[in-house]
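User: My advisor, Dr. K., asked me to get a structural model of this assembly before our group meeting. I'm new to this, so sorry if the format is off. These are the inputs:
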Amino acid sequence: GQLVESGGGLVQPGGSLRLSCAASGFTFSDYEMHWVRQVTGKGLEWVSAVGRAGDTYYAGSVKGRFTTSRENAKNSLYLQMTSLRVGDTAVYYCVREETTSSAGGFDIWGQGTMVTVSS
Amino acid sequence: QSVLTQPPSVSGAPGQRVTISCTGSSSNIGAGYDIHWYQQVLGTAPKLLIYGNNNRPSGVPDRFSGSKSGTSASLAISGLQFEDEADYYCQSYDSSLSGRVFGGGTKLTVL
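Assistant: The format is fine. Below is the predicted structure of the whole assembly, which you can bring to the meeting.
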């Protein structure tokens, strides 16, 4: 399987950006999908998840500002980011969760897309 | 401050064995949620190394092993090789936060 993110770029504080993730090589609708971000030189931070039924979950740092969604017919995952802050600057990874347990590991990662929030 | 605590760095000589600890609490590891480990080589995306506490995905050498006890978990790497030099992260689910959590990461240096 493969995941390919797109949509990153430079945006001003307070602005919006929509990331997309195209999945291939597996049955997209069978998996819970996540977004994970990483500030350059820092650790990994879980951002959000969307379940197979479309249920969504968010980290406290982005709740109310970011919206995750999926479109199974297009094998696509999205992250709508609003009210962006300088602290949201990071590489954003699209990630698939494996299904051996209710909170499985992230077994497929995209290459990441860079989001820079700066004036 | 990460919910899961890892040492910032560990090191070892080629052929040696090293362990990386991951300490959590009663709302994550101690609650029985699985621990997963990732390896991230500089400039690349993370790679799943261990899932479900002690399972290796296809292609991961058996030099890598995981364990879990109480509110802590460990990743062991035996027969260290220069190619093992990378950052390693543990990850689980936290019921208090209702979300996934990562450790702060551990940089492994092969001397």
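One thing worth pointing out at the meeting: Chain A is about 0% helix and 50% strand.

User: Perfect, thanks a lot.
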